[in-house]
Amino acid sequence: MASKRKVIITCAVTGAIHTPSMSPHLPVTPEQIAEAAIGAAEAGAAIVHLHARNPETGQPDQSPEAFAKFLPVVKSRSNVVINLTTGGAPTMTIEERVRPAATFRPEVASLNLGSMNFGLFGMLDRFKDLEHEWERTYLGNKDIIFRNTFGQIEYILTTCAGNDTRFEFECYDTAHLYNLKYFFDRGLVKAPLFIQTVFGLQGGIGGHPDDVLHMKRTADRLFGDAYRWSVLGAGRNQMNIAAMAAAMGGNVRVGLEDSLWDGPGKFAESNAVQVRRVRQIIEGLGLEVATPDDAREMLSLKGGHAVGF
Ligand code: KMH
Ligand code: ZN
């Protein structure tokens, strides 16, 4: 009997795009982040992509101390693959951003493949009641450049070299795929590349099906069978892009980092809700949801025993 293709669900549980006043369900404290990650894993996520926040203010916090409060909890209660952000927040320095991954040597870390405008200001129109002053300043800043120069990308790769950490290569436009190709051709990154194509952020490619096809075609041409494709649709693009990619051979990322929603005007009450919803799509397509160990095999990961936490 033919076996079903396996689809990796990544869940990014809190991130640095949304702010705590936007949704009561956005995880902020270490306990909430741990519960969200474990809940997502129980619902079917093979990988959790994690950021930390200051528990009082909800501000993104990239200190290793902040991550240390939830990493051992998640590891002790779940076999899920842990992926640590090196993106942090677009307002942070590169040295700050790499510290959690360098300290904790996770199986996976994110790596952002190009500099870009990062426009969060559109959300100010939709979310007017903001509890903290930092939220208004952060969201209203129209001059954010998310800096990921060739030198900075190389800095993250060399800082993490020797840790056997593999990467979630975040590509927000076609140029980022070409940037990744530069590192691939020089042997600085190795197959199988896990490419997270990102759609619908202000500053990156849009969320139209043509955009998805264009990124996929470009990645196919540049990397052939040396990569595993995953998609992340921001906001209202989340589930339709996930469905499209799953049907086309891809993997998917959901989570409150990139969308607060469970349908029009309805907040997702947890990360697990979005995982369950995408799981229904995957299974409805006759595909199978990958377990964490399946993901380890598909992405050639070192294993949960080899991390530094
Ligand atoms: N929220 C994603 C679009 C990172 O953590 O490295 C960006 C992201 C970056 O996940
Ligand atoms: Zn992230």
Bound molecules: (5S)-5-amino-3-OXO-hexanoic acid, zinc ion
Structural class: alpha/beta
Total strand count, please?
A: 12
Distance between the termini: 41 Å
Largest sheet: 8 strands, parallel, barrel
Number of helices: 12
Helix content: 25-40%
Shape: globular
Number of domains: 1
Order of strands in the sheet with most strands: 2-3-4-5-8-9-10-11
Mean pLDDT, to the nearest integer, reads 98
Over the alpha carbons, how many angstroms does the gyration radius reach?
A: 18 Å
CATH class, named Alpha Beta
Unreliable residue stretches: none
CATH architecture: Alpha-Beta Barrel
CATH topology: TIM Barrel
Please identify which CATH superfamily we are dealing with: Aldolase class I
Share of β-strand residues: 15-25%
Cofactor: Zn(2+)
Organism: Lichenifustis flavocetrariae
GO molecular function, one term: 3-keto-5-aminohexanoate cleavage activity
Protein name: 3-keto-5-aminohexanoate cleavage protein
Key attributes of the depicted protein:
309 residues; alpha/beta; TIM Barrel; eight-stranded parallel barrel; two-stranded parallel ribbon; 12 helices; 12 strands; 16% strand; binds (5S)-5-amino-3-OXO-hexanoic acid; binds zinc ion
Structure write-up:
This protein is of the alpha/beta class. It has one domain (6-306): Aldolase class I (TIM Barrel). Helices cover 39% and strands 16% of the residues. It is built from 12 helices and 12 strands. It has helices at residues 30-43, 64-68, 71-77, 94-104, 123-126, 133-140, 150-160, 174-185, 209-223, 238-247, 271-284, 292-299; strands at 6-7, 9-12, 47-50, 81-84, 108-112, 116-117, 145-146, 166-171, 193-199, 227-233, 251-254, 288-289. It has an 8-stranded parallel β-barrel with strand order 2-3-4-5-8-9-10-11, surrounded by 6 helices. Strands 1-12 form a two-stranded parallel ribbon. The longest helix has 15 residues, at 209-223. The mean pLDDT is 98. Bound molecules: (5S)-5-amino-3-OXO-hexanoic acid and zinc ion. Residues 12, 15, 49, 51, 85, 87, 110, 257 line the site of zinc ion (ZN).
